[in-house]
């Protein structure tokens, strides 16, 4: 059906969203390595819902075939 393409386009994260999600996940991983419960990125606090949204975006991107998690990290 004709609607499949537009639906995939709407729900597939953009390259910009993917790149930001990767940065959020990396910032969270670095904070965890330091033993810090505080995550910041570009001078802004990153809280748990933001990290979870980044994880979901990367899972959607991977499912859509536009992102490959090469790091083997289950959090991304």
TrEMBL record:
List GO BP terms, alphabetically: regulation of cobalamin metabolic process
Q: Which UniProt keywords apply?
A: Lyase
Q: Name one GO molecular function term.
A: (S)-citramalyl-CoA lyase activity
Alphabetized PANTHER family for the sequence: CITRAMALYL-COA LYASE, MITOCHONDRIAL, CITRATE LYASE SUBUNIT BETA-RELATED
Q: What is the protein named?
A: Citrate lyase subunit beta
Q: Which organism is it from?
A: Clostridium beijerinckii (Clostridium MP)
Lineage per the UniProt record: Bacteria, Bacillati, Bacillota, Clostridia, Eubacteriales
């Amino acid at each position: 059906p004709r609607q499949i393409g537009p639906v995939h386009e709407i729900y597939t994260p953009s390259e910009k969203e993917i790149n930001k999600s990767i940065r959020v996940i990396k910032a969270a991983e670095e904070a965890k390595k330091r033993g810090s419960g505080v995550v910041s990125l570009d001078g802004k606090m990153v809280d748990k819902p933001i990290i979870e949204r980044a994880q979901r975006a990367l899972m959607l991107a991977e499912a859509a075939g536009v992102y490959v998690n090469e790091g083997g990290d289950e959090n991304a």
